[in-house]
Design a protein that fits this description.
Elements lengths: L17 E12 L2 E12 L3 E5 L6 H8 L6 E6 L8 H4 L2 E4 L11 H12 L5 H7 L15 H13 L5 E5 L7 H14 L4 E5 L3 H7 L2 E6 L2 E6 L8 H9 L1
Parallel strand pairs: 3-7, 3-8, 5-6, 6-7
Antiparallel strand pairs: 1-2, 1-4, 8-9
Length: 242
């Protein structure tokens, strides 16, 4: 399977194995290009680690894929154009630096709000127990620690059972127990949900991911599996981003 699209290739709408197809994605602020001609494919059930130094464009790319930023280029999600396709957008889960939680609502009220928004049923008590937040279920989110907000945001992200999950530095602010919980959740979803996770943690990325995407200065430097690097991930990454 080709990891990246060639310049003259068209996006095929009929391949059910592909969760995401991106071709020549560009994002600009004024005359400044933040992302430049990014092209790649993501198969259903695959975990892709998005790597790169600060300022590489990782967060911007995830926001473009989630439909939060306007951009140029072609993008297909499960073979369909996401623009004005609201049923398709419900298949996308996005966890960014912003939690999208309502600070003046409790943990239960936040989950109930998003369940109603997506038109799904949520057993809030069971969900909050799963994320070790049950004892704080009636607390306002504004009183939560960073780690508690991150756990609730993850629960919010997964409430619609997305088929494409976009995670931006998901381990930031989590304690060791919560990190293990998130690792286990990613491994549970692996093979069923397509996941792109931006992270600076190379060891964790290597443990959880099928393939690796390296960005620098808004350009895609590499996308492929560990065996294609002919080196340790840390060494390969250091050379690519030097």
């Amino acid at each position: 399977m080709q990891s990246a699209l060639l310049p003259d290739q068209k996006l095929a709408k009929s391949d059910p194995e592909l969760a995401l197809q991106v071709k020549d994605l560009q994002y600009k602020i004024g005359f400044t290009s933040i992302l430049k001609d990014v092209s790649f494919e993501l198969r259903a059930g695959e975990v892709l680690a998005l790597l790169g130094p600060n300022g590489a464009g990782k967060s911007t790319l995830l926001k473009c894929l989630a439909g939060l930023l306007p951009h140029y280029g072609e993008k297909l999600i499960f073979g369909q154009h996401p623009k004005k396709n609201y049923d398709l957008r419900r298949k996308i889960g996005y966890l960014g630096h912003e939690t999208f939680l309502y600070q003046k609502l409790t943990a239960i009220e936040n989950l109930q709000f998003y369940a109603n928004l997506y038109g799904v049923h949520c057993d809030t008590d069971s969900t909050l127990k799963e994320y070790n937040l049950f004892d704080a279920r009636h607390q306002y989110v504004e009183t939560f620690s960073r780690g508690m907000k991150q756990r609730l945001a993850l629960a919010r992200t997964l409430i619609s059972n997305p088929k494409l999950l976009l995670l931006d530095e998901p381990f930031t602010g989590l304690d060791q127990q919560a990190c293990r919980m998130l690792e286990e959740r990613i491994l549970e979803l692996k093979g069923r949900v397509a996941i792109i996770a931006a992270t600076h943690e190379l060891d964790r990325a290597q443990e959880l991911s099928d393939r690796f995407c390296i960005l620098k200065n808004g350009r895609l430097l590499f996308i492929g599996a560990l065996q294609e690097m002919n080196a340790q991930l840390s060494d390969f990454y250091r050379v690519k981003t030097a």
